[in-house]
Amino acid sequence: MPLFRKKEKERVLPRHIAIIMDGNGRWAKKRSLPRSAGHAAGSKNFKDIARYCNKIGLEYLTVYAFSTENWKRPQEEVNNIMNILRDYLKDAKNFKDENIKVKFIGNLEPLDEDIKELIADAESESENATGLHLNIALNYGGRDEITNAVKRIIKEGLSAEDITEETISERLYTAGQPDPDYIIRPSGEYRLSNYLIWQAAYAEYWFSDVLWPDFKPAHLEKALDEYNRRNRRFGGI
Fold it and tell me: What angle do CA 124, 174, 104 make, to 5 degrees?
């Protein structure tokens, strides 16, 4: 596993960290700002944290950007989130030199055509990057992901005897990637919210009351300190 040094002490990085970027709306409300301001601040912070993860040598980062349930929000808020996504995607080519490989996971079919084209461009532009693998979960739901994997298995005509855990894992959006070692959720909530529910089987969890726009590298460092104090036994002794 990759190592980085801080305060003269070596620590082990998780291979894969997943973050639920929560609390944008509450961050805005505390400041008497519209929710759109919270989403804009959260988007900026996402870029900062992704860059920091790349800097310290993390292999995989998956962030929860928009869930299958988020369509239930007011249309104005959904439109605002999609426009922030457009701005990020249009700007993505300017970060090509950062050596971050971008992949979008989730059901992308319901998205507007221009967004799907921008996603394809962002993935293509970064496909040869050798640094951080950044997964952006968009229109993503863990149950929906597993349902789609089962549908694929049925369409492929596999028999019950041929189905293993690997059979399912290979048909998830994260196929070919290690499962997350560490799941981080800011904002004071203590649930997965339908996020990576198959992949999270043996993940460690870290929760914080800090709202996502205020979640800084120092908070990530605190989470990493805690990760290094834990003993992952995977059912053993």
Answer: 40
- Give the side-chain half-sphere CA count within 13 A for 18: 26
Q: What DSSP element (H or E) covers 36? A: helix 35-56
Sheet of 133-140, strands arranged across: 101-105, 133-140, 60-67, 16-20, 182-185, 204-207
Q: pLDDT tens digits, residue range 77-108?
A: 999 999 999 999 988 776 778 999 999 999 99
**Catalytic positions, written as ranges:** 22, 70
Q: DSSP letter for 179, please.
A: P
CA distances from 46 to 6, 49, 65, 82, 198 (A): 23, 5, 9, 15, 24
Rg (Cα) of the chain, in Å, rounded? 18
Average pLDDT of 67-79? 96
Q: What is the pTM of this model?
A: 0.92
Domains of the chain: 14-141+179-229 (3.40.1180.10)
